[in-house]
Amino acid sequence: MSRLQLPLPVYAGALLCASLLAVTPNCAQQIVHTPEPPKSIISLASTPRPQGQIVARHTGDATFEHLPANYHVFTAANVGEDAGVEALTLNFDAETKVTRIQSKNKDFVIEPGGTCHEGNSYGRGDSCTLLVRFNPQGPGHRLGFINVTHSAEASPMSFGLTGNGYAPVLSFTPGQITTVASTVSSGTGLIKSATNMSIDGGDILYIADIGNAKIKEIDSTGVLNSINPAFATPQSIAADNAGILYSTNVTGSTY
User: Which of 8, 85, 149, 178 is deepest in the core (most CB within 10 A)?
Assistant: First the structure.
C-alpha cells in the first residue's frame, strides 16, 4: 500500500438535494465546502504526458488526460518486462530537510542514482530528481504514490504515479467473495458496519467503515490501511482514476 499517514486529498461528494427534500428541506443551505489541505512546499515538476499507444494501447484504456497537479504518467508497460526508468523532478519552495522517501507499491520502484536523498537539505528554488521504474504487477490501470517526509511539514507530501500495464487475460467464472482478505484477524472482523465500497480503476479497494469512523483501503499486496476522513464518516464513496475519493455525507451535508 502506498500511503499510511497522508492519503491523497479526500473530498466529500456533492449531495443531490432533490433526493433529500423529504428529510432535509433546506438541503441547499446546508451544503458547505470542506477546506482543501494546504499546499506543500514540495511539488512535482510537470512533464509531457505520453501520447497515443505509448500510454494507452487499446481504445477505452485510461489516457490520464485530466489528472491534478503532482502526478506523473508513465509509458505503458507489459507485466513482467523491464519498462525502463523515468526521472521525476521535485521542486522546493522553502528550506527543508528530507527525512524519508518511500514507495510501498510494487508497481513503482525507486531506483538508486537520483539526486533526491534522505538526509539532504534543500533551499528555496532547489530541485532534485528521483529515478522510478514502472514495473506493473498486473494488467490495467495501475496507481501508486511516493511519500516524501521532510522537516518543514508535519505530514509527508504524496506524489501520484500512474500508468497502464498489459498482459494476456484469460476469462474466468465469477464467484462471490464473502470476506475480503486482511479484513479479519483471529476470527474478529476489523471492519464494522461497512455501507459502501469503491475501486479506483486500478486494484485499490476503498471501504466506508462507518462503525470505526474511517475509510479503509486495500490493494493487491493484501495490506489493509485506514484513512481518517476530513469530514464525518461517509455513507457512500466513489473513487476516480487518480485515487481521489468523493463521498455523500448525509449527516453533515458537506462536500
Answer: 8
Give phi and psi for 189, each to the nearest 5.
-70, 140
Name the strand (E) or helix (H) holding 188. strand 188-189
Residue 88 pLDDT class (50, 70, 90 cuts) = very high
**Segment holding 91, helix H or strand E:** strand 85-92
Domains, the chain, in order of start with CATH, read 17-38+181-248 (2.40.10.500), 42-166 (2.60.40.10)
Separation between Cα atoms, residue 102 and residue 137, nearest integer Å: 18
Q: How far apart are the first and last CA of the chain?
A: 26
The C-alpha atoms of residue 13 and residue 42 are separated, in whole angstroms, by 27
Give residue 209's pLDDT.
81
How confident is the model over 27-37, as pLDDT tens digits? 434 444 444 55
**What is the spatial distance between Cα 97 and Cα 77, in angstroms, rounded to a whole number?**
34
Residue pointed to by grid coordinates 495490506: 223
Q: What is the pLDDT of residues 128-141, one digit of tens each?
A: 999 999 999 888 88
Q: Left, alpha or beta for 144 (phi > 0: left; psi -120 to 50: alpha)?
A: beta
The model carries a pTM of 0.64
* Amino acid in the structure at residue 209: D
Q: Is the pLDDT of residue 65 over 90?
A: no
Q: Name the maximum alpha-carbon separation found in the chain.
A: 61
- Checking DSSP bridges between strand 108-111 and strand 157-166, what pairing results, if any? unpaired
Classify strands 71-73 and 157-166 as parallel, antiparallel or unpaired. Answer: parallel
Nearest to 223 by CA among 166, 181, 173, 179: 181
Handedness of CA 102, 9, 125, 91 (dihedral sign): positive
